[in-house]
Every structure is written in C-alpha cells, then in structure tokens.
Design brief:
The chain is mainly alpha-helical and about 220 residues long. It has one domain (about 10-220). About 65% of the residues lie in helices and about 0% in strands. It contains 9 helices and no strands. It has helices at about 10-40, 45-75, 85-95, 105-125, 135-160, 165-170, 180-185, 200-205, 210-220. Helix 1 (about 10-40) crosses helix 4 and helix 2 (about 45-75) crosses helix 5 (about 135-160). It is globular.
C-alpha cells in the first residue's frame, strides 16, 4: 500500500520506528554525557575545550559521510535495487529530477532513512565497554550521529524559498548548508559538492578531485 506520493506504508512504519529507537538511544547518550561531564569536569580544566574539538571534528566527519553517501546514491545502483533502492537511492534520484520535491516531504520521510542507517553503530557504541570506547569518544559519536540525523533536514532547508529566520541565519553563517553553496551541486554535470551537512569539505574535496577519482576507482575506469 502506498500514499499519494508513492511513499510505501511499510517504509513509513520502518522509518518511524527507526526514529523512535534512534532518539531513545540519543537520550541515553545525553544522560551519560551529562553524568560523566559533571564527574570529570572537576578533574580536568581542559575537558570543555577537548569536547568542543571533538564536537567540531564529529561535525566535519558527518559532513564527509553525507557527501560519500550522496555520491554513492547518485552514481551507483538504482531505485529498483532491493531494499536500498527504495529506502536510500530513490530520494536522491528524485531530487535531481525535482529539487523542490524534498521540501514537500514530511518529518519521517525526510529523516527516517538516516536514523535507520545510524542505528547499528549507535547501538554498538552505547553498549561498548569503557575498555573499547572512553567517554570522550562516546561524546564524539553522539555529535556525529546527531549531525547525520540533521543532514537531510538541513538539505531540505537549503531548498526552501523562505526558510525560518534562525535557519536562514545559520545558512548565512555557513554553520549549515547554504542554498547558494548547494546550488553548485545542482549545476551540470552534477558531479561536485556532494557534502550536504554543512558543506565545509566541498571545496577542498573538489580541489583534490576526490569524488571524481573515487568514481573511477569504483568503476575500474582508469582511462
């Protein structure tokens, strides 16, 4: 069964469940972060600085991962690929045909796939023992997964004609993806500026021709 936009009921149920479980684990991460920060702040005056640096690195990592996933969905597979096609690839391919379509997606349709793909890692890192993952790395992954969760919402905001005032300000300050910056990706041949969280990595990756080279490697095209 599908709704009028072609969004299957099974996919909505799957992604709504993923969002619920995702935020349940995020809540556990936040509780752990607050508890551990209070205990460790007394021991280290540099802890706050360290966590800011971890948060910054996590946000940049999320930007890179958003670009990598965007690149793979744009260039490999198709909407008919089992499971991945409908859940992940279809939205990216639709987006190039109708860039404004994303602005009509409801909350679950916009953000469900990112929650779904994040759950295995999020669950693992929550249950990992201290010997595997210390508190600062847990904080890094908390910010990283929040960045991944926000990516599609940020992408959606970049296509709104009149985004909310706060969102427009964050776009102007380039703390999230600005519309003019993202427009570079939507110019033919659509093979650059794939990163869609904040877009900070787009220019350096383009200077390195990173995604163009990766495409040749994955297709074994060394001409």
């Amino acid at each position: 069964m599908q709704n009028q936009k072609g969004y299957p009921a099974w996919q909505f149920a799957l992604e709504a469940t993923a969002i619920t479980v995702f935020f349940s684990y995020i809540g556990l991460f936040v509780y752990s972060a607050v508890t551990n920060y209070s205990a460790r702040a007394e021991q280290s005056s540099l802890l706050s600085v360290q966590l800011v640096l971890y948060a910054l690195f996590a946000y940049i990592t999320a930007d890179f991962v958003s670009g990598l996933v965007h690149f793979l969905a744009d260039n490999f597979g198709n909407p008919e690929t089992p499971f991945f096609g409908k859940v992940f690839i279809y939205a990216f391919r639709e987006h190039h045909v109708d860039p404004k379509a994303i602005t009509h997606h409801a909350f679950v349709e916009t953000n469900g796939a990112n929650c779904l793909v994040s759950l295995p890692g999020l669950i693992y890192f929550h249950h990992a023992s201290a010997s595997v993952l210390d508190y600062t790395f847990r904080f890094y992954f908390l910010v990283f997964y929040l960045g991944i969760f926000l990516t599609n919402q940020i992408h959606k905001w970049s296509h709104l004609d009149n985004p909310p005032r706060l969102i427009a300000a964050l776009q102007r300050w380039h703390l999230i993806l600005p519309p003019a910056h993202h427009a570079i990706h939507h110019a033919a041949p659509y093979d650059k500026y794939y990163c869609i969280t904040c877009g900070w990595l787009n220019a350096p990756l383009q200077q390195l021709h990173f995604f163009q080279a990766l495409k040749k490697v994955l297709r074994w095209d060394f001409r």
